[in-house]
Amino acid sequence: MGNGNIRWQQFFISVLGTAIGVALTFSLNGMRANNKQEQAQRLTAIMVIHDIDNTIEILKSWKQQEAARDTLLKYAIENRDHLDKVPLDTLYTIITDLLRINEDYRFDTSKESIFNSDLDTWQNLGSVKFLDNVQSFFYDRQTLQQSLNRPEWREPIPYEDYLEMLMGRGMLTEEQFLKLAVPFLKEKLYDNHVIYYIDQSNYREKQLDQLLDGWIALNEENKFLMGITDQEMEDYINSFDATGLAVTKRLLTGTWTYLLENRNQEFTFNADHTYSSVTERVEKGSWLYFSGEYKITAPINGTWELKGDTLAIILDPLTADLIVDISNLVPEEGKQDSVVSWQKRYRERNLKVTREMPEEARRNAYKVRLDSSKDKMQWTTPAGKTFYLKRKQE
To answer: Is the dihedral of CA 327, 330, 334, 338 positive or negative?
Structure first.
């Protein structure tokens, strides 16, 4: 009997151990499943919060542009009877600020579609207030998108009107362009649609301010409701640029080239944090008295900074130069002077624009990564545009 009891005890312990093992296995699997689900839900929340942050940055940029445009267009209205005295570059900027290039404006709503198509989101995110905030933002953004195609938001001069002015006239000199542009713009500045658009600038700024105030507060609440930290947001953003190798000062130092069909740009980064670049490009044109190709060479210097994966280039506009090679421009007989005169005006005008570059345009920042060879570098602009440079072998 004693031995039998021992065997029954051993059997019972064995069964109990197996049952506990099975229970633990199911429990751990359930925990892993729940953990994965929580991670997916958290990632969904971060994705939407990042989408709102991106839209906020777009509106901030629009607000800055609107303030500058308002000053310029009111100046245009005040001087519409004296446009022949307005500098060419200012005249051109006024026209382009009024041109309707695209028929419709669209926000990127891909994240919104993902969020609304995930049925689990509605059941498992755990915060009704967060869901309400997100849907409120999506509704407001859709309403704004519809507003952007109304007269108070849409640039009032159809691009086709501008093309009609230029069509069939070939490449124009500055004087020829002014003769066409001054009466064209004067007529438009007396058009009621144009006047209405310019007068609505304060309305546009006010609406942008209201949306920005509301969306910034709403997204701060979202982060609080979902317990999303600034570090998590930064990690999410950096995850887009996780491929490639980090750039160091030693690996950056040297000359890099960016090649296109008709353009070559070299960037040289020195160990003392000075920087230089030379851009070369070939253009074709046809003017009244000459035609052919001309080559532009544009050097400029500055300094650079590398912080983490961000490369900042600070230009010194006073170091800029411009060489215009006109040896392949062919003038009509006796019109060589017209080529030389154009060359001088072209150089002076473009150098003036570069040397008077506004402070905010002098600093450019890029996310930078290297490939495995360390001889190819990826640059990504704040707007998300990516291009690639190759190390120049000495």
So the answer is: negative
* pLDDT, tens digit, 9 for 90 and up, residues 108-143: 888 888 888 766 656 667 788 998 999 999 999 999
Could you give the C-alpha distances from 262 to 38, 275, 279, in angstroms and in order? 52, 23, 11
- pLDDT tens digits for range 258-274: 977 668 999 999 999 99
- Of 351 and 36, the one with more pLDDT: 351
- Asked if the model's pLDDT at residue 278 lies above 50, the reply is yes
Burial track 142-179 (b if 16+ CB lie within 10 A, e otherwise): eebeeebeeeebbbbbeeeebeeeeeeeeebeeeebbe
At 346, which helix (H) or strand (E)?
helix 336-355
**CATH class of segment(s) 249-391:** mainly beta
Cα gap 278→263, rounded to integer Å:
11
Place 233 in a pLDDT band, splitting at 50, 70 and 90. confident
**What SS3 class is residue 245?**
strand
Contacts of 268 (CB under 8 A, 6+ apart): 254, 255, 256, 275, 276, 277
Residue with tokens 């491929």: 243
* pTM greater than the 0.70 cutoff: no
Q: Are strands 99-100 and 157-158 parallel, antiparallel or unpaired?
A: parallel
Domain ranges of the chain: 39-241, 249-391
Q: What angle do CA 128, 129, 134 make, to 5 degrees?
A: 100
Would strands 363-370 and 376-380 be described as parallel, antiparallel, or unpaired?
antiparallel
Q: Cβ atoms within 10 A of the Cβ of 42, count? A: 16
Residue 137, both tokens? 């933002």
Tens-digit pLDDT profile for residues 20-45: 454 444 444 444 445 566 677 778 88
- Give residue 119's pLDDT: 61
Closest to 345 in 3D by CA, of 178, 162, 98: 178
**Any idea which residue has 């080239």 for tokens?**
257
Residues 6 or more apart from 62 whose CB is under 8 A from it?
208
- Residue 363 sits at φ, ψ, to 5 deg, of -110, 125
The distance between the two most distant Cα atoms of the chain, rounded to a whole number of Å, is: 129
- As given in the structure block, the two tokens for residue 206 are 């006010």
Whole-angstrom distance, CA of residue 95 vs CA of residue 189: 10
The pLDDT of 161-181, averaged and rounded, is 84
